[in-house]
Amino acid sequence: MADPKGFLTTARETPTRRPVDLRLLDWREVYETFPAERLEQQAGRCMDCGIPFCHNGCPLGNLIPEWNDLVWRHDWQAASERLHATNNFPEFTGRLCPAPCETACVLGINADPVTIKQVEVSIIDRAWDEGWVAPQPPSRLSGHTVAVIGSGPAGLAAAQQLARAGHTVAVYERADRIGGLLRYGIPEFKMEKHHLDRRLEQMEAEGVRFRPGIEVGIDMTADDLRRRYDAVIIAVGSTIGRDLPVEGRELGGIHQAMEFLPLANRVQEGDADVPVIDAGGRHVVIIGGGDTGADCLGTSHRHLAASVTQLEILPQPPEARPGSEPWPTYPMTYRV
Ligand code: SF4
Q1: From the CA of 185, how far away is ligand 1's center (Å)?
Q2: I want to staple 62 with a disulfide (CB 3.0 to 4.6 A). Which of 43, 58, 121, 225 is the partner?
Q3: How far is the CA of 1 from the centre of ligand 1 (A)?
Q4: Minimal CA–CA distance to 101: which of 112, 114, 111?
Q5: Residue range 6-130 in CATH 1.10.1060.10
Q6: Pocket, ligand 1, Cβ cutoff 6 A
Q7: Among the atoms of ligand 1, which is closest to the Cα of residue 48?
Q8: Pocket test for ligand 1, best of 53, 106, 116, 119 (most atoms within 8 A of CB)
Q9: What is the number of helices (H) and of strands (E) in the chain?
C-alpha cells in the first residue's frame, strides 16, 4: 500500500490550467506540468483497496493501485512497466480519457478521489523523457501476416500487440496520415501530435508497416486482403456525421464538427497557413454540449472568433454528483 495515511493527510490536487490569454495565442496543451514530488504525494492517497473499484471503472482494467504504490515509492520505471501491462498508449488515454476510474474510486464515496489520470500521464511522460519506452521487436517471426484496417487507437493497439507476438502487420488507413481521430479529430490543445508521432516511430521500429492513403473497398478489395494476409482486423471509424434536418440546414456557414476539426488540425500539421473553415472574427454557434462540441469551442476560440455560443438539448447538469447517479457510476456533471 502507498502512504497508509495519505488519504487522510493529503488533499486532492490537479494540475493548473495555463492562462486563457496565453492559450488563445497558441495550440499547446491546456495543462501546466505537474511537479513530480507533489504527484508522488497524490499517488500516496491511494488506499490499495481490497476490492479496487477503479479497476471496474477502467475499460482497460489498468493496474491502478500497483502503479500508484510504485510512484509513491519513487520507482517510476516499474510504474511505467505496470502501466504498459494493460495499456499500449497511456500518453493518449492519460490526456483524452474521461477517467471513469476516478468516478469509481472508493475514496470518492466520502472524499475527493485519487487523481488517477494525472498519475497515469505523469508516469508515461517521464518514461518517454527517461528513455524507458523503447521498441520491443519480437525475437522471432511467426510467419503469419495480418492486415489491420483503420489506424485509430484500436487499430494501432491491435497492430502493436500482433507485431510484438511476431506476426507481420500492415496497417491500412484511408487518410493521408496515420492516426485516425487521434490525428484529425482531437485538437492539438488536447493532445499535441508529437505524442502520436513518437509512438508510431516505436511501432515502425517493432516492424509494423503503415499504409496511409489506401481506402480498403476502393483502392483494394476485401479479396485482395484475404489473398495477401492470413488474417484481417477491421478497426474502422465513421466519417458519416449525424445531421440535423431542420429548416435552413442547407444555408452557407453551417458545418459538421468533423469537417471543421480536421481542417484546423491540418493547419497544425503544416498543410495550410489558414484553415479552410475559419471561425476568426465570426459569431459561432455550436450545437451539442459534449466532447466534440468542446473541441469545436476551443478551436473556435483559438481562431479568435468574435463570439461563441454553445447549445445543448439537455438541462445543465449539476456541478457535483447527483443523488440519482450514486458512486461508483459515471455521473453526468457540468464540466468545462
Ligand atoms: S479505488 Fe481509488 S483508493 Fe482504491 S485502489 Fe483504486 S485508486 Fe486506490
Answers
A1: 32
A2: 58
A3: 10
A4: 114
A5: yes
A6: 46-49, 52-54, 64-65, 68, 105-107, 114, 116
A7: 5
A8: 106
A9: 15, 6
145-149 and 209-212: which strand pairing? Answer: unpaired
Question: What ipTM was estimated for this complex?
Answer: 0.97
Domain boundaries, the chain: 6-130, 145-234, 241-336
Per-residue pLDDT of the chain (336 residues; tens, 9 = 90+): 668 899 999 999 999 999 999 999 999 999 999 999 999 999 999 999 999 999 999 999 999 999 999 999 999 999 999 999 999 999 999 999 999 999 999 999 999 999 999 999 999 999 999 999 999 999 999 999 999 999 999 999 999 999 999 999 999 999 999 999 999 999 999 999 999 999 999 999 999 999 999 999 999 999 999 999 999 999 999 888 899 999 999 999 999 999 999 999 999 999 999 999 999 999 999 999 999 999 999 999 999 999 999 999 999 999 999 999 999 999 999 987
Q: Mutation test of ligand 1: which of 51, 53, 117 has the most ligand atoms closer than 8 Å to its C-beta?
A: 53
β-partners of residue 285 are 309
Cell triple for residue 174?
484511408
CB 34 within 8 A of CB 118: yes
CATH superfamily of 145-234: FAD/NAD(P)-binding domain (3.50.50.60)
Burial of 15 (0-12, 13-18, 19+ CB in 10 A): middle
Residue of 5, 12, 64, 120 to mutate, ligand 1, most atoms within 8 A of C-beta: 64
